[in-house]
Amino acid sequence: MSIPEETFDVVVIGGGPVGENAADRASRTGLSVALVESELVGGECSYWACMPSKVLLRAGAVRALAKETPGLRDPGAPDAAAVFARRDEITSNWDDSGQVSWVESAGLTLVRGHGRLAGERLVEVTLRAGTGSEAQGGAESGLGEAETGEAPAKRLLRARHAVIAATGSVPVLPGTPGLAEAAPWSSREATAADTVPESLVVVGGGVVGVEMANAYADLGARVTLLSRGGLLSSAEPFAGEMVAESLAALGVDVRTGAEVASVERPGIGAEDGGPGPVTVTLADGGTITAAEILVATGRVPRTADLGIESVGLDESGLGRGGALVVDESLQVTGVPGGWLYACGDVTGRAPTTHQGKYQGRIVGDVVAARYGTEAGDRSPTSGDPEPAVGQEGKPWSRYAATADHSARVQVVFTRPQVSWVGPTEREARAAGIPVEAVSYDLAWVAGASVESPGYKGRAQVLVDTQRRVLVGATFVGPDAGEMLHAATIAVVGEVPLDRLWHAVPAYPTVSEVWLRFLESYGL
Ligand SMILES: Cc1cc2nc3c(=O)[nH]c(=O)nc-3n(C[C@H](O)[C@H](O)[C@H](O)COP(=O)(O)OP(=O)(O)OC[C@H]3O[C@@H](n4cnc5c(N)ncnc54)[C@H](O)[C@@H]3O)c2cc1C
Ligand SMILES: NC(=O)c1ccc[n+]([C@@H]2O[C@H](COP(=O)([O-])OP(=O)(O)OC[C@H]3O[C@@H](n4cnc5c(N)ncnc54)[C@H](O)[C@@H]3O)[C@@H](O)[C@H]2O)c1
């Protein structure tokens, strides 16, 4: 029996933070928007990533601050049960009804199920059991759920104008012998755990690896961190070195240049008492045995079951790790008709929540503007010239994700925190930008000595010596995440150094480092 089609102006596949933003932005202009979500509205970030991981790090950070502050005492090791309870609150116990209420209030139609492209502007949704009659909002539905009485297994959503893929990413499990059989934790288990393993071996020295090593060491686990290179290889080298030093001071056994050769976990699947300890053998023959293992070796865009073949794309048309390749207006390249868009982790461009949400805002505006070219100006953001389908938006206009390249920001919530905007020095030089790095020890700034007598931190800006503007900056230290935005504004605004000279940092704040940067550069 054929399934009747339901028509919307826009269909968004994936209700993570990015899909939510794209859907909301398009819908604000009056377009009807369906949002398809197969798990929890709010996505990875709300339930198994950003939010729970930051809560797991918070108690340890506050303890460290108390320990370093004269006049206070060590409050003692965090109460892990209380930390997990707070984590449960922040994830709403993995219940998305709060976010569903927001979706409803934004006028979006939520369709719970797995969405797959099924041809031009067509999305087939395999419904999640028990959610068949959850059509909400004001779409023109051809489906009479009330009449059928029973939840249909599938729904067909026809997009009058555009489909936006915001399906996120999935973790990578290396093919190391014995690793899959050892049933390792991914970031999901690490962020959703409710007990602290006595010992934990973490494979991968990227962002998840260092944050979770820090969190579990704070919570009392004996942690070994294995990285085949240094730590945080996408940041400036001094950042990874400072984080390694501080993790080691916390008791983490940090092993850089460590290649995992094989993994063994006898007794896995046994009925009595869960899996036993896991033994990791390194390429140099050394072994580590721990109660639990976390694999944090990166994520790839989630395109494996998206039906891309139905719209004329095959694997050769995908980018690194299977990413949907997009132009600057976030239109997927290689799909005739220009109706398919993508944003967030699935594009592989800048896999963080904030950059993805930025893309979501842009794609929502692009879709609305292109709809508007036929049916009058429905753009909420008129002012910039609207790009026609197949044209890229003007750089730095509302219709181009320009910051993805030149002003990407990231914060790593370890102790010390690491934050950066723009390219690293190496990336800038590789891109042919004539940069001079100006580096400063944050402990030398008066504000730092007020914060703590043992304050440790370093900051660096990259000056484009030809244009005399900043193109990048890195901060490592307490609250480095909060120090970043001034640098982001300087980079995005391409503020001339001679004008920055007049941005006077207050005394005694750590932001006085901005004055030191300029003085060191010769102003
Ligand atoms: C441990 C960890 C910590 C992190 N911490 C931070 C942080 O502090 N700050 C930060 O900025 N970033 C952080 N990130 C990265 C951040 O989580 C991602 O960049 C962000 O979640 C991407 O959002 P998204 O909407 O693109 O994808 P997701 O959040 O993955 O959402 C995609 C959604 O689409 C749904 N979906 C997928 N396929 C389909 C389909 N075919 N049909 C229907 N629905 C589908 C999924 O169920 C999911 O809900 C962290 C990541 C991890 C793993
Ligand atoms: N605070 C934040 O913004 C935050 C926090 C956590 C995660 N995230 C995002 O989540 C994504 C995933 O994080 P991640 O840490 O898993 O990825 P990552 O790419 O940051 O790091 C992966 C690490 O694993 C190593 N690796 C890869 N393959 C390996 C193998 N076979 N054996 C051993 N090591 C291997 C890499 O060299 C790298 O050091 C990233 O895009 C990150 O930006 C962001």
Q: What characteristics describe this protein?
A:
FAD/NAD(P)-binding domain; binds nicotinamide-adenine-dinucleotide; 4 domains; 16 helices; 20 strands; alpha/beta; 5-stranded antiparallel beta sheet; 523 residues; 5-stranded mixed barrel; binds flavin-adenine dinucleotide
How would you describe what is shown here?
The structure is a single chain. The protein is of the alpha/beta class and 523 residues long. The protein folds into four domains: 176 residues, 3-Layer(bba) Sandwich (FAD/NAD(P)-binding domain); 48 residues, no CATH class; 118 residues, 3-Layer(bba) Sandwich (FAD/NAD(P)-binding domain); 117 residues, 2-Layer Sandwich (Enolase-like, domain 1), CATH 3.30.390. The protein is 30% helix and 22% strand. The strands form five sheets. It has a five-stranded mixed barrel. The structure holds flavin-adenine dinucleotide and nicotinamide-adenine-dinucleotide. The site of nicotinamide-adenine-dinucleotide has 24 residues, from helix 8 and strand 16. The site of flavin-adenine dinucleotide has 36 residues, from helix 1, strand 2, helix 2, helix 3 and strand 3.
Write the layout of secondary structure elements.
Blueprint (H helix, E strand, L loop, with lengths): L4 E9 L3 H11 L5 E5 L5 H6 L1 H19 L11 H11 L6 H9 L3 E9 L4 E6 L17 H4 L5 E12 L3 E3 L15 H6 L6 E5 L3 H12 L3 E6 L9 H13 L3 E4 L3 E5 L13 E5 L4 E4 L1 E4 L3 E3 L38 E3 L10 H23 L27 H4 L2 E4 L4 E5 L3 H6 L4 E7 L4 H6 L6 E7 L4 E9 L2 H13 L4 H4 L12 H9 L2
Parallel strand pairs: 1-2, 1-5, 2-3, 5-15, 7-8, 7-13, 8-9
Antiparallel strand pairs: 3-4, 4-5, 6-14, 10-11, 11-12, 16-17, 17-20, 18-19, 19-20
Helix pairs in contact: 1-10, 3-4, 3-8
The protein binds flavin-adenine dinucleotide (FAD) and nicotinamide-adenine-dinucleotide (NAD).
